[in-house]
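In the previous chapter we treated chains in isolation. Here, by contrast, the input contains two separate entities that must be folded as one system, with a combined length of 1386 residues.
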Amino acid sequence: MSGILIIADHFDGLLRDTTRELLSAAVSLRDGVHGPITMAVLTDSSTSLVDQADLQGVDQLHHCNVNTQHFDPASYEEVICRLGTALRPRIIMLAHSANGMACAPAVAARLGSGFASDVFGIRFDGNELVVTRGAYANKLNMELGFPNKGIVVVTIRGATFKPVTESATAVRSTECFDLSALTGRARHIEYVQPQSTGLDVSTADFILSVGRGIQDEKNIPRFQALADRLGATFACSRPIVDAGWLPKPHQIGQSGKVASNCKLYLALGISGAVQHLYGMKHVETIVAVTTDTNAPIYGVATYGAALDVFELADALEKHFS
Amino acid sequence: LGQAREIFWSIGSHGIAIFYIFGYSAMLIGAWGVVRHIRKYIRGRKLATPVDILTGLKRMFLEISSHRMLRRRDRWAGIAHQLVLVGFLIAFAGTTIIFIDYDIARPLFGRGYWSGWYYLGTSLLLDIGHLGLVVGLIYLIVRRGAFRLPKLRYVRAYRRETALRPAARGWRLEDWAFILSLLAIEVTGFLEEGVRLLMDHPYLDDLSPVGAVVAKLLAGAGMSAKTARIIRHDDWWFHGLLALAFTAAIPWYKAKHIISVVASLALRDDKPLSRLPMERPPSAPEALEPVGIAKVSDLSWKQMLHLDACTKCGRCHEVCPARASDRPLSPRDLILDLRTLNDEVQGRDLGRISLVSNSIEPETLWACMSCGACQEICPVGIEHPPLIVQMRRSLVDQDKMEPQLRSVFGAVAQTGNSFAEPSRKRPTWTQELDFKVKDIRQEEAEFLWFVGDYASFDPRNQKVSRTFAKLLQQAGVDFALLHESEWTAGNDIRRAGEEGLFETLAHHNIAAMNSAKPFRRIITTDPHSYNTLRNEYPEFADIAPIDHYSTVLLELLESGRLAVTEPIGKRVTFHDPCHLGRLNKGYDPPRQVLAAIGCNLVEMPRNRDNSFCCGAGGGRIWIPDTPGTPKPSISRMHEAAALGGIDIFVTCCPKDLTMYEDARKTSGHEQSFVVSDLAELVAQAVALRHDLAPHLAKLMEQIVDAVADRIGDAITTRLSDFVATLPRTPTPEPLMTTDANSPPSDRPTAPAIPLPSRPRESASAEQAAPGVDISERPIRSLAPMGWDDLKPLQAANFPAYRAPNRSGLRILVPVKHVGILGDERRLGADERDVADGILDYAMNEWDESALEEALLTIERLGGGEVVAVTVGDEGAEASLRKALAKGAARAVRVWSPELRVADPLTIARILAGIVLAEAPDLIICGVQSSDQANGATGVALARVLGMPHAAVVVEVQWDGKGDIAATRELEGGVREKIELPSPAVIAVQSGIHTPRYATMRMIKEAKKRPIEVVDAAGVFDGSGGYIVRRLFVPEVRKSEMLSGDPAQVAAFVAKLIREKIGAKA
């Protein structure tokens, strides 16, 4: 039992950044695993995704032809278990993404292996694998161990490890999987893209983002107007979209957009759930204003102010008239 | 002297007959109208508590005779109405005298008695009475027609309407019809009298001065005898028939208030708002009937009668702070709308007629601030606020409420306070005091101080609480607090319509006070707590007398226990808190305190019973106002500023302080005056001893800490030495700190496996002392496995558990009772979980979404059951009860103490055991829990069961038989539509539905239903996914906190924007 098996996370013909981050996490463990880092890409016969996954640090690259690029938990579970039996890795790594969450626990349950999800720290303590993850809304961290477990399945939190971007030429192998006999498979029907409003928060360099703290749908126009006046792109956190106050394209976060070109992020009334931080914590200057002095967003913000967002909005407006 | 009046002058026998036919018809029509009303009232609900009719009658006579209510704040209208009423009564008496004389005495005894001096005397009285009536009427007509009083206009300007509603046109019509027809009767009466005097020249002009003047005028105008004769005849008929028509119409329009007001005033409750009506008990023990008022037939007969008493005088409309702030509520219009609807159905339950969709909009009901200004000024005894609260109860019951209110109810149910703070933090405001505040649970005291939410948690009010505490201390008052045993009193929870939650709060606080050490008297700085403890708690149990701190301060000042050494000498104005003033008549003590400390009190125009609400009451403090709507508190600031030269705006209510501190800044009067609490001024005046140099206190604290540390170290070392001498029991987690709250356990330590040592710990600390709570969270050995030895997870086996037979679709929903961590980050002794007692618990948000989806599915498919399952200790039953309250059919709880820190795979195995017994058609769970957020249990459960599954689902469509169509949420806003066969496990995102609200009453009802408890002892077989090595507090990169007010922070941010973004901004 040695080495690490990484299951590539991809969507719409593109390798997701999370895959590159998984690799980075795996590379950091290289000294402890005593074995190769294997990247498995479950896709159709096209090699495009496999080429993208050919990154520095990958020792073996497995092209697993499952006849489709679409994710299906049952197929993934089956292929991972078959690959595992052949490769006998110590660690199986998946992204803590919608798809990773949908199959990693099943793989662990099927193998009876060790399992931890949403991991943001992983290391060897001697021969023992130790991972760190959050607890109680990330107010605490928990350190987990897997004594006696020869195999550990982990899902890794996104935007935590620095993605590996350098491509390489790893040893490749291709295998076709016939999964027609597999029961309980889901049928992919279609993808639904978020309604396009022409808005792309991921390209904005200055974002004004609002969260639950603005209290009421009726306050949306007021902050929208403030954003316009400041020349900022108007964005929000998930609860605002869930409540139907703003359309999906405004959402920053894991299930929304990542503010990847943002230089200045003004977060008003956002306490900072992990899933929101995912989309903005990398921004070089973050100003967070929310009344809750213990809000997690102050953990990533450059500047914080525990003020009433409405009063701040009024005061700020005066500077841009 | 046999002087008398001829009743039927020149009217022939036919005419008389016709007149009598009209007369009796009028009486019949009038009587029919009265009977119709009575039948309507009979259809109304019975009263829960009997009415004290004697007191009511006394008060009614007093109020009508004095006209106190009508004269108040509208003196001339009151006097005019009094003239009208007295004149009307005299006229009525006159008519009665004539009726008895002419229709009873004369036919019976052949002679009447209305003659001679007796006749002349009554004639004079009648003339004067009628004159008063006419004068009053004319004033009222001019007032209505020419004064353009806003309170008499029915255009709903507060709803930005510019035209009259059709119903309001009717109201205007009846107003004029009533007042003008009465005037017409009077004028024609005097004319008749004048003509009669002109023609008959009776002795002394019948002692009818007005008639004589009219006669003179007519004569002066040169009226001929012939004209007089014609007028006398025609006018007689006109006057007579008009009077009969007026009589007939009385119960059918506005004139009915002549009767209904008498009843309404007699039936008036003496504490309609300060002591709200309890909800009627369910008719059967198991019945869950709709609560509150949802339809007309839910009104009590008394409430219907009150509706009929309204004269649209507009006094309530004028004073209502909601109406004055352009909120969609006018108490007058609400009452009139209710009356219109009730008149349509006549109190019948026509089923489909729901008040809230047909007549009253929910935002109207939510606009009320429960200040009581409307009922205070209502001259006819209408009790608007209880009606509004009872309709709110129905809204809450149907979950038709603002989301913020829903979350406040949730927080209060959860934590006992509206700030959603852990109850442990309730007494933290006392920590900055340089003396220890007694805990009534431990030691007796003279006073129990019931602090209330705002005074406990709001920083500005905490200062006031500390000031008052210091004043008590200085005065040598022996007082104590309930500390964390105090929950919010529930005054505003009740007024917002969550009656069940209020009952829970009341029961809790009463129990806390009953189990406390003895105390003599309750005091509070919070008028809201004061009101409910004083007026409402006694309906649940006897409690000690309660006083507002204004009374206490007055006593201390008067008795000299607090001596004024530095009189304030400032111009101040005082705001009467609604709950202290209007609701409990505590107008004087605060004013006396202000006088005693040398304040020069200047009253605002709206003071005492006319005080203008700050806008916080009735739960409004929790519901955000629509941006742009005027705030009552700002209007109040303008009112105070208009007095000119005011130094201090004084309040004695925590909510007032909060509202007015805000309003002072936003109203532009920040420089004009300060807002201060009564206690703060008293502190200034009595030169409250300053805190014993605060740095000294801090130093003491440091010394105590240092000593404690040293003792702790010594104990740890000795303990370690002692442990080292013991036979080595391999226990992985060292004893780092001792959690004082964890009781030692005598349970045997579970077989444990060694863990690699943590680098930062010394070897000597590697073992746990025996008897520490580590057995509470045993580290179970994980079974060895590897690629040669795979150990697929097996469902747990619960042979003793049997699910009942199915009677339709069955959806199973696993729910987790999650721990919520506040600001405190203490860990338990073994550092593998947080310290006992610092978590608050609630049903996992994601599972609430799952439950909602399951309930909606069952409802849509028209039958079946939802079964809620949890793995948790007894505390987790709270979440199961919530699930039952929302509509789950059954609830199952699986537990064994060894599951205390179980991993998701273990939980999945246990759930799988229950699923095998239940054999559901579908399992819907939350995709993750808010505490550990593993996001794994559902998918692992599906794997153990061999079921298809879908995770991160935001939409489910299922016909109950075939494949399930699910929409998954992927990253970047993309959604994936898939189909999968059933049965399956669907793990849903939170927020896909707004979970329905389970009122406390529903939850209480659910308590009566059984929860199946399954013992999972021995189920753990080492197949879990991980063991928790330790928890620790992460080091957080703290952002640089900007201090300063909003303007300063805004300036900084603006500069930052210009620097970073440049010209664009």
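The radius of gyration of chain B is 38 Å. Chain B has a mean pLDDT of 88. Compare these points with the single-chain example from earlier in the chapter.
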